[in-house]
Amino acid sequence: MMPMADSAEEVNQAEGHPDSKADGISESLRSLDTYAPESAESVEPALSPADLPARSRKAFLRHMIGQLAEPVQNRIRALRHNQLQQVRISEQFFREVYELERRFYGQSCALFDARRDILEGAVEPPVQTEKSWPEDPQDALYLDFGNNEELRQLRQKLAPVSPTTVGVPRFWLTVFQNVPLLSELVQDHDEPLLECLTDVRLAYDQDSYTVIFQFRPNSFLHDSSLLLTKRYFLQHSADPEYPFLFEGPEIVRCEGCHIHWRDGSNLTLQTVESRRRNRARRVTKVMPRESFFRFFAPPQALDLSLADETTKLILGNDFEVGFLLRTQIVPKAVLFYTGDLVDSLSAATPDSRSLSSEAEAEQEQIL
């Protein structure tokens, strides 16, 4: 028979009192907090092929495949053929998506007609008393005009609008100025003519689409040039040289249109006076200048891969503008006017990539 403990201390020791266990656990935790492996700082993350530059990574992976046994390499080749069949399915998928876009745009034309009529004042819409969309809280849209010089300058540029104003003045000009990619094209001397822009529409063909700019009569354009067009040609199939880079139809070429300017009103030209050395009289020259309307006279390159770098850069930017007009600006113009889509263009979509950017990406991987 076990003898009884003579004191509370003996009972605690015999039964393993909870307080004594807790003290032991706390001491262990404190010791863990102060423990630091000596080698922890010297351990480096394992190196992987993803850490290599693109050109080195591709060469290394080709080397890795070359080291595999021939039966394994044959299986890899079969998988690449399998992937090529997926590309063919993707081509068909994107072709049908484009046809759906083309068909549903036609269903939206009545809404675009109504938009044009409101903008031009041909129709006065009924008073809108209900909103079917959420609004940002006012405190989240605070403007610090006192400490921001750019905001003050922009506020000074705002033109006053009379309550008797017809339609929505400067609508399309404001939309273009609100979008970075388009704002870069608009110069100060372009603004008076862009204020006369009444509508921007699309016309779809099987392998191309046309952006149509409609102007009201003005002092810059001859009456025969009140409708300006820009046509973009699409390639719906994968590039035979880089089939695995296919991510949808790509713009491969564009065509502008001739602009019939009124005398002395060509916004793409400027008159410059200069005095030649040792001559008293001044010489007048007509020089090209930056203008939004150069958009309608893009450089021509039947084979973009053979074009010089300047042409590639100009056309690459032009293709991005064409894609943006088709997918964002024309269908959603009012949202860029109001700022609802002010952040929507921060991430580039795969479809907007041109052949030049695709080729540059492949070239970076090859080099």
Question: Main attributes?
Answer:
disordered C terminus, 4-stranded antiparallel β-sheet, disordered N terminus, Arylsulfatase, C-terminal domain, 367 residues, two-stranded antiparallel sheet
Explained architecture:
With 367 residues, the chain is of the alpha+beta class. The protein has a domain at 70-124 and 166-262 and 291-346: Nucleosome assembly protein (Arylsulfatase, C-terminal domain, 2-Layer Sandwich). The chain has 10 helices and 6 strands; from the N terminus they run H-H-H-H-H-H-H-H-E-E-E-E-E-E-H-H. A 4-stranded antiparallel sheet has the order 1-2-3-4. The protein has a two-stranded antiparallel ribbon with strand order 5-6. Helix 6 crosses helix 9. It is globular and about 80 Å long. Mean pLDDT is 83; it is low at 1-18, 28-36 and 347-367. One of its GO terms (biological process) is nucleosome assembly. Residues 1-49 are annotated as: Disordered. One of its GO terms (cellular component) is nucleus. This is Nucleosome assembly protein 1-like 4.
Summing up helix and strand content along with how strands pair, one would put the structural category as alpha+beta
Number of helices: 10
CATH topology of the domain at 70-124 and 166-262 and 291-346: Arylsulfatase, C-terminal domain
Q: How many strands, which pairing sense, and closed or not: the largest β-sheet?
A: 4 strands, antiparallel
CATH-scheme architecture of the domain at 70-124 and 166-262 and 291-346 = 2-Layer Sandwich
InterPro entries: NAP-like_sf, NAP_family
Family: Belongs to the nucleosome assembly protein (NAP) family.
Protein name: Nucleosome assembly protein 1-like 4
Region (Disordered): 1-49
